[in-house]
Amino acid sequence: MSTIADNVSRVSARIHQAAASSQRDPAAIGLLAVSKTKPAPALREAHAAGISDFGENYLQEALGKQAELSDLPLTWHFIGPIQSNKTRAIAEQFDWVHSVDRLKIAQRLSEQRPAGLPPLNICIQVNVSGEASKSGCTPADLPALAAAIGALPNLRLRGLMAIPEPTEDRAEQDAAFGAVQQLQQHLDLPLDTLSMGMSHDLEAAIANGATWVRIGTALFGARDYAQA
Ligand SMILES: *Cc1c(COP(=O)(O)O)cnc(C)c1O
Fold first, then answer.
1. DSSP for 35-71?
2. Do the Cβ atoms of 29 and 207 come closer than 8 Å?
3. What is the pTM of this model?
4. What number does the ligand 1 atom closest to the CA of 200 have?
5. Which of 79, 82, 135, 160 to mutate to test the pocket of ligand 1 (most atoms within 8 A of CB)?
6. Which ligand 1 atom is the nearest neighbour of the CA of 199?
7. Rounded CA gap, 197 and 169, in Å?
8. How many other CB atoms sit within 10 Å of the CB of residue 175?
9. Which of 33, 106, 159, 204 stands 20 to 30 A from 16 (CA)?
10. How does strand 53-56 pair with strand 30-34?
11. 180 vs 38, 98, 108, 164, CA distance in Å?
């Protein structure tokens, strides 16, 4: 059985290899460890192996782990669907939110971001797989949504996030991630972030400009309960 440290080495090697293949600086690609369903000691192990950014999908679960790991200098990313009644805790407890797909949620996050904290880093989740996915704004709605979110005071719009329909076909992966990169380039905004690529498709995501890859199973193994 491989340890989390072994997995961190393997994933880092994949990131470096993919960066080299597309003449990119590997330092421009962040490894976001997706720790949903994993207990705090697993995150502690990942941190000891060099990981400082963790992505969580479920608020209550995340808050528990944040309390248990408050002695570590970690950066927390919220990456799951967001209900309105959860925005206050997210605005207070996270550094990044990758899954914003409507203005109402962004407005609440901006209003509820505590005054003493830096602006909350935001990615807009965009749906490039059409009917296949229900989360994410449509490419048609993106320009207006991005302009509106970019104008909110306590948020810093960083870029786009996408979860394309899973496929093992490299050409299909490239088409989906390439579409996200194109959408980003066509927005007339100072954006520096593309959050895309998971355990099975990080190579294609990096070839198409990913700056955060969100990796769960390749670091922590299979999820611990069926919900995820
Ligand atoms: C679970 C999850 C991941 C990680 O997926 P893996 O295939 O386990 O790497 C990445 N992004 C989001 C939004 C997720 O919910």
1. -TT--HHHHHHHHHTT--EEEES-HHHHHHHHHHTTT
2. no
3. 0.96
4. 7
5. 79
6. 9
7. 14
8. 15
9. 159
10. parallel
11. 29, 14, 26, 9
CATH classification number, 4-219, choose in 3.20.20.10, 3.30.1850.10, 1.10.10.10, 3.30.870.10:
3.20.20.10
CA distance 205 to 21: 12
Written as one string, the DSSP assignment of 107-157 is HHHHHHS-TTSPPEEEEEEB--SGGG--SSB-TTTHHHHHHHHHT-TTEEE
Residue length, the chain?
228
Burial per residue of 24-59, b for 16 or more beta-carbon CB atoms within 10 angstroms, e otherwise: beeeebbbbbbbbbbeeebbbbbbebebebbbbbbb
Ligand 1 touching residue 14 (CB < 6 A):
no
| Token pair in block for residue 67 | 């309390």
Tokens of 151: 């104008």
Per-residue pLDDT 10s for the chain (228 aa) are 679 999 999 999 999 999 999 999 999 999 999 999 999 999 999 999 999 999 999 999 999 999 999 999 999 999 999 999 999 999 999 999 999 999 999 999 999 999 999 999 999 999 998 877 779 999 999 999 999 999 999 999 999 999 999 999 999 999 999 999 999 999 989 999 999 999 999 999 999 999 999 999 999 999 887 554
